[in-house]
Every structure is written in structure tokens, then in C-alpha cells.
Give the backbone structure.
Amino acid sequence: MFKKILIANRGEIALRVIRTCKEMGIKTVAVYSTADKDSLPVRFADEAVCIGPAVSSKSYLSIPNIIAAAEITNADAIHPGYGFLSENARFSEICQKHGIKFIGALPEQIDGMGDKATAKATMLAAGVPCIPGSVGLLKDVDDAKKQAKKIVYPVIMKATAGGGGKGMRIVWKEEDLEAAWDSARQEASAAFGNDGIYMEKYIEEPRHIEIQIAGDQYGNACHLSERDCSIQRRHQKLVEETPSPFMTDELRNRMGDAAIKAAKAVNYEGVGTVEFLVDKNRDFYFMEMNTRIQVEHTITEEVIDYDLIKEQIKIAAGEKISGKNYFPHLHAIQCRINAEDPYNDFRPSPGKITSYHSPGGHGVRIDTHAYAGYTIPPNYDSMISKLIVVAQTREEAILKMKRALDEYIIEGVKTTIPFHQKLMENEDFCKGNFTTKFMETFEF
């Protein structure tokens, strides 16, 4: 087992990793930018090293600075959290070269799953259902038109290096395709430095359901059931829950089997997530694989009593997984509490938190790095906390979430708490009647 782990991240996920490391008897090193010098991860880690100024490219994305911090503190492993360098194959490779264990996927696994066109080809070969679409990248606009006719409109063009909706365009008819092709490539090039585009059938009324998986260094893989992430805005998740209200036992088994096929196809090592789109007929299609811990890993932990960060660390240290699949026996919901103004198009609201009171009680969990007097910097993601509740049934979980949201006091900045309060009162949400398009008609 590792003696000391450096956490190459910030905020709530850095604190989350520190907590598990301490419970495992492992020393911790926090790295921080000048904007985060007063953060809780810095306070609670055994050691802390400043790695640069507030701008991410010179701190949390600076591989030389992070490796230097690991070397001067004699850390024998690095946990990247999520975001930043967590899915950076080069970082994983450089850690290997410096004799530091990267607690995550191997470089070739990150590369193979990070490029969406390559990932789709791998999944098709493994027998995982994929959305009908182009084989590889589109050559030019004429190729795009040809593929669209074969796939049948509506189609969606996606950036191969994409994420967060960048370089993505839905096309309903041929006369709109050329303009969409040009704008998708321009946006993809600006966002990712890669204008590669592929095309898929556009799935109407979809659910976004993901399967948590784990794989070890010996070829074993298992799944830990699903999470429904369909409540999202501009492809950014707002609320996640497990089990999905749309799920059946038969569908769960089929999706779980497909996720294990996906993991074994790349000899996956670590904890990861296979994401699917599920249509109204409960047909599911591979979307992408995230080779890291997810923001929403918390709800899986709550329904099966399983520390996923601990499992990540054990796998990286060479331990075998049980190979047993896990199924939820409770219901959990997570609301992302962001420093955003829901009354003003969710505009970011950085600043100083003047008053802070967390909800509590049975079945309520808060993952946060915030406190009264803490200043939310404008340089990073606006997340303040993750509010998680767990109960016997979905109905009880919604009631518990409503109660917890009513108790949650954050003053000094605008937050998404009022949005979540309204969502928990929404009839369609409460009945489980929603798709990824829910926010397009939700009135706030």
C-alpha cells in the first residue's frame, strides 16, 4: 500500500480523497494555487505545496509543478480527482516515468477512450450497443451529407475531442447541414485544438444513464449499478440519482453486462463510468467512457455502502477486486449546489460566503470545501457542495431532500438551492417523467 499520496486537485474532491487516505493510514499532500491558500484541503492534508498562481494552466494543469511537488514530498502516488489532469494520458505516462503511481487509468486506456471515434470503434468490436453513425471521422461536408442520408435525419455532429456540448450540432434536414458542419468544426477547433467531427443518429427523448464500473490489474471487472443523470442544463449535470426511476431489472442486467464488456475490451484498470443514452423504448447506446472518478460517485457509495475512492487506491496498489456486481438496495439523490444565480440564467456568483449552515440528520451527506468566511474564487468551477440524501424509497428521498434544502443556509453569494427546491416540487420530476430535455421546458 502507498505511504503518501499527493492529490492533484482542489475543492471538495481533494478533501474527499484526503479523508479516505487518512482512514487508510496514508499520508497526504495537498497542492494549491495562490487562490486556494485558505482552502480546507490545504488545512487538513499532512503537507501542502503551492504550485502556482490562480490561473489553472500555471497551477492545477502544470504537470512539471505537480511532479516537482510529488518529488520534494516523496509522494509515491498521485490521485488526480476529476477534471484538470484526471484524463490526461500524458500526465499518467509522466507519472509512470517518474516512478509515481497514477491512481487512475493507464495512458493507453485514457487515449483509447478519450477519443470518441476510437472509443466507439472499440465498443462496436466488443459487442457493446452503439448509436448508429459514421465509421470514424467525417472527411468533408460531402461525406457528412452522405452519412446523414444513410443514418437518416435527425443526426447529431460531435467533436471527437469534445465535452460539455462544445462542437456539437443537431441537424434536422439536409439544407441545414453545411452551416452546422462549418460551425461545429470552428467551435471544436477553438475549444480543443482538434476539429475532427463524427456523426450519429440523434436519439429523441433520451435518458442519460451511466454504469459505474471497476477493473483491476488482473483482468477482472465488475459493475456497481446505474446512475440517472438526465437532469442537466447545457450538457452539465445538475441532479443525479440511483436507482434510475426508468430502470427495470432486465435493463439493469443488460446495461451492466455491456459496461463490463466495455471495461474488459480495454483491460480497464481503476474505477470508471460507462455512459449510455437510453431511448423511450429502453434501447440503450454507448456514449462515452469516463476513465476517472465522477462527481456523482457519492450516490453509488450511499446505496451500496462502498467507498469508491478507497477502491481506486486499492486497485492502484495492485489489489484484486471481488468481481462481484453490486445492486442498489436504497435510493439516493444528489443535488449540485453551485455558486450560480438560477434567476439570471445560472450566471456564476463568486465571492465571500458570509454565513454557512449545513443540513444534517439521518441519511443526509454534504461533500464540500466551503465554510463561513470562505471566498469562492472566480477562476474555477462554481461548485460549492454536493448535497446527498439516501432513503428506503425514491418518494422518501425526495421528501428528505426537500427538508435538507430548506435547512441549507448559504449567504453572501447566489446559489442553486432555490432551483433545487422548485425541482423537488415539480410533478413530472416527482413521478420520474423526465429526459435530458427536461430543463428546456422547466420554468424557473
